[in-house]
Amino acid sequence: MSAPSTVAGAQVPAPPRFRVRRWWPVVALVLLAVVPYTTLPVPGVLPGGLNSPGSLQLLALCLLFAGFAVTYDLLFGHTGLLSFGHALYVAAGSYTANVAVTKLHWGWGPALAAAAGVGLLLPAVLGAVALRVNGIAFAMVTLAFAQVGSILVMSAHLTGGEEGLSLANVPALFAGVANTVNLYWLALAYLAVVVVLVRWAVESEPGRVWRAIGDNERRVTVLGLSPYRFRLLAYVLSAFLATAGGVVHLLLLGGSTPQITTSAFTVGLLVMTVLGGAGTRWGALLGGVLYTYLDQRLSALAGSGTVAGLPAPLRLPLSQPEFILGALFVVVVYFLPGGIAGLSRYRRRA
Amino acid sequence: MTDLLRVEDLHVRIGSSHILQGVSFAVPGSGVTALLGRNGAGKTTTLRAILGLVPRTGTVVFDGAELTRRRPYETVQLGLGYAPEDRGVFAGLTVAENLRLAERDREPRYDLVYELFPELRTRAKQPAGTLSGGQQQMVAIGRTLLNDNRMLLVDEPTKGLAPKIVTEVADVLERAAATVPILLVEQNLALVRRLTDRAVLIAEGRVAHTGALSDDPDRLQTLLGVGRA
Amino acid sequence: MSTLVLLTMTGLGLGALYFLIASGLSLIFGLADVLNFAHGLFLGVGAYATWWAGRHLPFPLAVAVGVLVGVVFAVAVELVLIRPLYARPIQQVLVTVGLSAAGVALLQAAWGADPRPFAKPGWAAATTRVLGAVVPNDRFVLIGAAIAVFAGLLLFLRRTRYGLIVRAGVEDRAMVTALGIDVRKAFTLVFAIGGAAAAAAGALAGMYFGSITPGLGGSLLIFAFIVVVIGGMGSVTGCALAAVLVGLVQQFANYYAAAGVGEASVVLLLAVVLLVRPGGLTGRTA
């Protein structure tokens, strides 16, 4: 079986850094942080004014999923590991904390510790097995593991089965509509931490090896390094960050839903990453924001009168956000192999 | 004598490495032409590029037909037989199945193949993966002789074989060369000298020398980096 | 005893369903290196085509229509979407992922997310007594169909020229082309075979579960993937063995332990096989 091929765009050297370019992420972060203080009306783009709870909830979701996509890209884009089981770790974070607080009546301290423990142990054990195979077989095995997690969550009484589990004890800081702004900041902080950690990891010594593994596994082996151990390291780090995001997801939604355990959830992350440009600096982040925004807004659009009034051949596909996103994805894979990040590169070159 | 195969300015890039950097040479329509060079010089890549098994640019003309826009199977159907370096035998298929897969002509020349390699008939039902290296090489060469090919590309046929088998393979190549021209990649210089005096030398992705092996023995030794054979 | 027989027959029926999906998946992967996430969609297309035809035609004819639609759809997917991307396996997987999402959504747009009741012919709804157990006939239909497909595939692989090309191509695709064979024709052929078997699985799954949903293929596909990995990718015999094993383990564990344990045991089985034999139970075709 062939080793996973390098994702388009992964080998392109980083563009020269200008001073402005170096600082714009910080500027963007500051701008995003002060969003809740602005009352700018954005009709059509967001459900309400920029700082309305509805808009902040949507923006927080976009930021959180951008964070998930960045953790996924650490595997897919930077290490060349095509995992179909990332949802498992998001679910592990959400459900572990939720069950500990809601069912076992623990405090938030122990609940977070439990989630952190699961977030390290679970990927270490499962990764150790799954990484024995490469490429497509790895994809299948991770898919299978996640599927068990999904089935267990959906059938177990403790996790609320197919109904999901509402969070009983929401910390005061995040409770109520008025505190949506705090959830927004939490999601922003999560994204910032994930971006910094992944950036740091990718540029560190192991990060270089990850990239080399994605490019050419044999070369790494020749250097006397074990691709297995480095892959496991990337796998555990990525899974741990996803688990942390799962806890944020729990707070943002006020509960755990079985949807976050499904393979469709992982496929969503994969689509975000490829849409934005796998293995690039900001691709996964942009893809995550764009996909989540489209997913949410298309669902709203699908239920609106505009679509209902269309003739059937147009109405039927447009009533399904999944169809639009799936088709968009196929188009991107074909015509924009570098994703959105690749687009800006074409323009600069032209 | 007109050239049957002409290679001009052949380039192969794989990833960031530029493996062939403008290789040009010609192969006449009879006898053996040796393709020589050190390990990693690009001999195997040259054969693979002629067939289109690696992405290439440049010109390859076989008997008047331009090959670079053809797919490998179309090139082979023009009458180019290929016995690759690792022999390319299908381990899970029996010897008979390996030969049957290679059949292209209406009347495959099993009589010739079985005459040259009687062992292939007795081992017809044996999975090719259980054969010895020498026997696998017989399957690989047998496949090229089954059809009425107009040229054979043979890559290191004696690699890793016992001396007795090497002689056997050389005998077969000599016999085959009487009817079909061969472009031969081979490290065993003594064997090459027995078969031909005509060689193309490749060094670092370029042609370093074309002509007779006996022209300039010292330069040859330097280019090949081997002791006197 | 009768429980044991019923569980065995039901497990074998489930295994038969898995085999029908996994055999095509395994051949497509083995030969063309394509992990076909759209295989569940092939199943869905076959199931809905059979359901649609079943309103006008008797069941066996409706299944034939479903299989035909599945073949046409699979071949179209291979020619239009997959073929331009050969030698780029990751892109191919991504395209099948996107196609699967879009296609399932389209099925849902056309026929709704709710289960569509699937009319079962009278003879399939009846039961037969086997060693004291009352076994529904649909189990026999599933097992019979899987055995027929298995035998047909073995004959194809061992007795025909294209079968020979497929077996050789699973080992070394490039060498097959270097023998002057257009291996891409064989790719289209395995997609056609896979599409036919998956569509048949869709029709039979509809009969077995009594209803169909757009997502039916997706949930079965995951177990088919497991079967493919356990059986060794590209091996039809391994696939059959693994399908039987997975179906039986799942059925027995779910009955004797608790719901969900069956699925967990199957994945445990997968982990054990990977640890002991990373290449799966077998490493070759047929």
From TrEMBL, chain A:
Protein topology in the membrane: Multi-pass membrane protein
Keywords from the named record: Cell membrane, Membrane, Transmembrane, Transmembrane helix
A Pfam match: BPD_transp_2
Localization in the cell: Cell membrane
Signal peptide: none
Superkingdom per UniProt: Bacteria
Keyword hit for Acetylation: no
Keyword Cell membrane among record annotations: yes
Transmembrane portions of the chain: 23-42, 54-75, 87-106, 112-131, 138-158, 183-202, 232-252, 264-291, 298-317, 323-343
Classification via InterPro entries: ABC_transp_permease, LivM-like
Name of the molecule in the record: Branched-chain amino acid ABC transporter permease
UniProtKB/TrEMBL annotation, chain B:
Domain ABC transporter: 5-229
SUPFAM superfamilies: P-loop containing nucleoside triphosphate hydrolases (SSF52540)
Keyword annotations: Amino-acid transport, ATP-binding, Nucleotide-binding, Transport
Molecular function GO labels: ATP binding
InterPro entries per record: AAA+_ATPase, ABC_transporter-like_ATP-bd, ABC_transporter-like_CS, BCAA_Transport_ATP-bd_LivF, P-loop_NTPase
Family designation: Belongs to the ABC transporter superfamily.
Protein name as catalogued: ABC transporter ATP-binding protein
Organism for this UniProt entry: Planosporangium thailandense
UniProtKB/TrEMBL annotation, chain C:
Record's keyword annotation contains Cell membrane: yes
Pfam families tied to this protein: BPD_transp_2
Localization: Cell membrane
Membrane-protein topology: Multi-pass membrane protein
Entry's transmembrane regions: 6-27, 34-53, 59-81, 93-113, 140-157, 186-209, 221-248, 255-276
Keyword line: Amino-acid transport, Cell membrane, Membrane, Transmembrane, Transmembrane helix, Transport
Family membership noted in the UniProt record: Belongs to the binding-protein-dependent transport system permease family. LivHM subfamily.
Name this protein carries in UniProt: Branched-chain amino acid ABC transporter permease
Organism name: Planosporangium thailandense
